[in-house]
Structures are given as C-alpha cells and as structure tokens.
Automatic annotation (TrEMBL):
InterPro entries: AAA+_ATPase, ABC_transporter-like_ATP-bd, ABC_transporter-like_CS, P-loop_NTPase
EC number, UniProt record: 3.6.3.-
Name of the protein: Putative ABC transporter ATP-binding protein YxlF
Family: Belongs to the ABC transporter superfamily.
Taxonomic placement: Bacteria, Bacillati, Bacillota, Clostridia, Eubacteriales
The protein's enzyme class: hydrolase
PROSITE patterns: ABC_TRANSPORTER_1, ABC_TRANSPORTER_2
GO molecular function: ATP binding; ATP hydrolysis activity
Length: 300
C-alpha cells in the first residue's frame, strides 16, 4: 500500500483534528478525501506529508513511517491556497522549484519540458504567471509538484475555483498521472469530480471516517427502478417479491432492488403475465447522496 494509517489521531489541545483514522490507498489509484469544512481533511493531509505530528496512531507512506526523509523525496504536494510571484515566468517558477528540490542542473531543462508536457503548458512557459488564467496557474502548480517525479501526489482542492473547462483539464491530468502509474490523493469539495476520477474514497466528518472503500462500494445501494407499464394485481404481487418500497400509481411503478440481475426478470414478469411494458429505467444514488447520507448518519 502507498498509504496505510492505523487509528491516526491528532488533537489540538482538547479539540479533535482527526480521530482514529484507519485507511489504505493502493499504488496507482486516485483516492478522494471528502468531508465538510472543518472535518479534519487538511489536518490529515498535513500529517501524511510530514507537516504535522500525530498525537497517536501510526501511518506509513510509501512503505516508510510518516516524516521519513527518503519517502518525502518521492511526494509531490499542491496546497489549496498557493500563490506564486506574478512577475515570474513559467520557466522562472519551475526552475526555482527545481532548485528547491536540488535537482541536478544538467537535468533541469529536460525535466521542465517533461512536466510542461504533462500539464499541457508547453508554449506558455515564457509568459509571466500574472498573465495566466486560474486554470493555467493551477496546472503550473501541479507541474511544480511533479518536478521530483513523485510516486505519490497530494492535490488539495485543485479544481475548486475553476470553470468547467479548467476542471476538465485538471481531471485529464489526474487520469494521465494514473496511466503513468502514479498515486494521486485528491482532497476536494466537488463530489462529481471525485466520482469521475477516483477509484477509492474516504468520507470524514468531525475527525472521524464515516465511509471508506472503493467508489462503486460507497455507491452500492439499492437500485431505484422506475417502470412505466400497464399491470394487473397478479403482476403487482409478483413484483413485490423483488424488492422493497414498491409504489404503484396509475401506470407508474417504483421499486427498490439490490441486484441488476433482477431487472430482466422484472421485465419478464410484466410481459409474461399480461402486462404492457413501455419504459424501465434503473438509477443508483450519486456520490453526493452517498456523502450526505454518510454525514447525516444515514438520512439524506
């Protein structure tokens, strides 16, 4: 595992930052950290990056204890509220960060070309940062975080202030990084973004993990099946066997089922028992609904 925590806890005096968090992040996946403001997300990331010490618990990053210098050399980090000098050009900015990483001078030009290509900023590197759009500045920040060729990249709210085009550009970069075998740890308030690019996620509230697992498992809930059909009492009775919360109004039926495999069987029951099926539409809850349900203790 690239990240593994065991009951990781941080107190600020008598206030809980994060409480007994135990998660695992696999190599090469995009992992989403979700939670309302003040939930403990920033505290958790700062512990993993070695910027804070935990009060108790254990954590391993890249198979090393948190804070290990060798592991930190292979970590990239883009904070949420970064601000770069507007008078710098893109090349100035990247060269400065390359010096902070202590990259060998002879390797810097090739490395700059590489990261500029990854974030699609080639051709803009000689312009001043102050002329960049918000999306370009965000991509420049990601480029800085990639200079050390990290195995693990932390991105804190990378799309929160971007327009739809800028968000798609960042999503495409995350997907590209996954294809390169890198692990991306994404902290975001934009649940749709996490749902589109992440393989796994954790939802935390008041410092505690309230949901954790693969995205498809977090979303794994009963399927709501909306049916437009003419049915009789025999069909209605047989449909009730498939699931719960069956609602029948005129020619509309709603039923909650747990298995996609039941859908063709439900269609067969309607057709084979004298009914007329006009429409059948399955739907699952979104990550937003799963998030609200987890935060509210099961009530959306």
């Amino acid at each position: 595992m690239v990240i593994q925590t065991q009951e990781l806890t941080k107190y600020y005096g008598d206030k809980i930052g994060c409480n007994k968090i135990s998660i695992e992040v696999a190599e090469g996946e995009a992992f989403g950290l979700l939670g309302p403001n003040g939930a403990g997300k920033s505290t958790f990331i700062k512990i993993l990056t070695g910027l804070l010490f935990p009060t108790s618990g254990k954590a391993f990053v890249l198979n090393k204890p948190i804070g290990n210098v060798e592991a930190r050399k292979k970590i990239g980090y883009l904070p949420e509220n970064f601000k770069y000098q507007e008078w710098m050009t893109g090349v100035d900015l990247l060269s400065f960060h390359a010096s902070l990483y202590k990259l060998a001078k002879k390797t810097i030009p090739a490395k700059l070309d590489e990261v500029l290509d990854i974030v699609n900023l080639k051709g803009h590197e000689k312009y001043r940062i102050g002329t960049y759009s918000k999306g370009m500045q965000q991509r420049a920040g990601i480029a800085c975080a990639l200079l050390c060729d990290p195995d693990l990249l932390f991105l804190d709210e990378p799309t929160s202030a971007l327009d739809p085009i800028g968000r798609k550009e960042v999503r495409d970069i995350i997907i590209k990084l996954k294809d390169m075998g890198k692990t991306v740890f994404l902290n975001s308030h934009l649940l749709s973004e996490v749902e589109m690019v992440c393989d796994s996620a954790a939802i935390i509230n008041k410092g505690n993990v309230v949901s954790f697992g693969k995205i498809q498992d977090i979303l794994k809930s009963k399927i709501t099946l909306k049916i437009n059909a003419k049915i009789n009492d025999v069909i209605l009775e047989k449909l009730s066997v498939f699931g719960s919360n069956l609602i029948h109004r005129n020619d509309t039926i709603e039923i909650s089922i747990e298995n996609n495999d039941d859908i063709p069987d439900i269609a067969a029951v309607i057709i084979n028992n004298g009914g007329k099926l006009y429409e059948l539409t399955p739907s699952r809850q979104s990550l937003e609904n799963a998030f609200l349900s987890a935060i509210n203790g099961g009530d959306v």
